[in-house]
Write a structure and sequence with these properties.
about 450 residues; alpha/beta; Spore Coat Polysaccharide Biosynthesis Protein SpsA, Chain A; 2 domains; 8-stranded mixed beta sheet
């Protein structure tokens, strides 16, 4: 054990030196080539400034995250009643796995209501919901919607059915840990907290390199970025896989949330970002609880993965615009306001950066010189590696040194295969098609999960 830890420490130290050397090389090379005839000085300055901002933001997030602390878990007497909503569409047997993981939660049975909603599925999802309901001792209430109305509509119906003020939403392909409900509900320790984001990890790691790459990103996005945002109560996305809300805060604007439009079209995607935006815009806090964990599935083929990212990024365009408008209407000079500005600035930069970069890259490529093409690729790679090295090092420290390499590999994967998605998403942000949900494969025999669903099967329906 001692020699293993020593080797691990050496690898982490080597990564730190590589990161430091890469950053120094980035700025040195940028300064060096900015004076060449192939690259205009303003181009070098532009990319250097973006790289520096990204680095500062990641470091800022890491420092703030080190100050983050979970809300202490409440005992059974202190816990309030909790309603869990599980919307499902063409999920098959996986919805039963989700429901059984909720039934096994360390939460007082008399204070727990679970609403399972079949959103017009074309497969046997409703049969699996009834199977779990019949074994729930009355804790599961089912609702069978004959026509598919979308996830937002299913959640809307669930909120109206909820009998408790704390409402937890869980995706129908997610497995929650035994203490997740207790931990996420305990985070409502202040009356101004309107929402709490759970901590999401990847369930289907065995399905290939895409889930492994995204697991590094999820760890960093939740345990660093959301931890930092939680410090000032401005978590900007409550993930559908596991989040909680105070019903009394959400209900006054839930009709507006359901009927939200963007550029004249219904906003049917990004319901998790939209509800967090509305809570923040109404003056309430949204926080993060890192010990409320759910494992969820993500697409593992290139086509479906692109569709998922496209859906996420389209909703980011919409919600970042709304948050920016709200931000400039509520200027209040304080530490919390400055921190919110930094977080929002990073999100907005991530949305508009590909569009701003497009003419810069095009100018480089139009020179038709080996140097110009190399510099275009070089800048894209440098920015990506700066964004990847710090998450990789944190993942190496907290989870696995070997698997942290996937963060760096994702930079190459993103540069050559995914860089078109933010641009396409920006210009098609009005499109609210879900894109990834299809008919699930036929479920196996009911006996497969008789009595209990342990969870991590690695099988996903995306």
């Amino acid at each position: 054990m001692k020699s293993s830890e020593t080797l691990k420490d050496k690898i982490i130290a080597a990564l730190l030196w590589c990161a430091a050397g890469g950053i120094v090389a980035c700025f040195f090379c940028t300064w060096e080539i900015s004076g060449s005839t192939e690259v205009m000085p303003w181009q070098g300055f532009f990319f250097t400034a973006v790289s520096l901002f990204m680095l500062l933001y990641i470091l800022f997030g890491a420092v703030c995250a080190s100050l983050y602390r979970n809300a202490p878990a409440l005992d059974d007497k202190e816990l309030p009643g909790c309603t869990v909503i599980v919307p499902a569409y063409n999920e098959g047997e996986h919805v039963a796995e989700t429901l059984f993981s909720l039934l096994e939660s360390d939460y007082p049975a008399e204070k727990l209501q679970i609403i399972a909603i079949n959103d017009g599925s074309k497969d046997d999802t409703m049969e699996w919901i009834r199977y779990a309901e019949n074994r729930s001792a009355g804790r599961i209430v089912s609702l069978d919607l004959l026509k598919n109305g979308g996830k937002k509509h299913a959640l809307y119906r669930g909120f109206h059915m909820a009998k408790f003020d704390i409402v937890v939403t869980v995706d129908s392909d997610s497995i929650v840990t035994r203490d997740s409900l207790r931990n996420i509900v305990s985070a409502f320790n202040e009356p101004e907290i309107g929402g709490v984001a759970g901590n999401i990890r990847i369930k289907n790691l065995a399905d290939g390199m895409i889930p492994r790459m995204m697991d590094v990103g999820f760890m960093f996005g939740f345990e660093i970025i959301r931890s930092a945002q939680s410090l000032i109560g401005c978590v900007m996305c409550t993930p559908g896989a596991l989040s909680a809300y105070r019903k009394s805060i959400v209900m006054p604007f839930i009709d507006q949330w359901l009927r939200q439009t963007f550029l004249g079209a219904p906003a049917n995607i990004g319901e998790d970002r939209a509800i967090a935006t509305m809570i923040l815009r109404h003056g309430y806090k949204v926080t993060f609880q890192s010990n409320a964990v759910a494992a969820t599935c993500i697409p593992y083929t290139y086509g479906r993965f692109c569709k998922m990212l496209l859906r996420w990024l389209r909703s980011d365009v919409r919600e970042n615009l709304l948050m920016t408008i709200h931000f400039f209407k509520k200027v209040r000079f304080s530490f919390a306001w400055a921190g919110f500005a930094f977080h929002l600035g990073a999100l907005v930069l991530g949305t508009v950066m590909p569009i701003i970069s497009l003419p810069v890259m095009a100018d480089m490529f139009c020179r038709f010189s080996p140097g110009g093409i190399f510099h275009a690729l070089y800048y894209g790679a440098v920015i990506g590696f700066i964004g990847a090295l710090i998450p990789a090092m944190i993942y190496a420290k907290r989870v696995s040194v070997l698997n942290s390499v996937w963060a760096v590999l994702y930079t190459v994967y993103n540069l050559f295969l995914l860089s078109w998605i933010p641009i396409y998403a920006f210009f098609t942000a009005r499109n609210s098609n879900w894109l990834t949900r299809e008919l699930s494969a036929p479920a196996e025999a009911v006996q497969k999960i008789s009595g209990r669903c342990a969870g991590d099967t690695g099988q996903c329906n995306h």
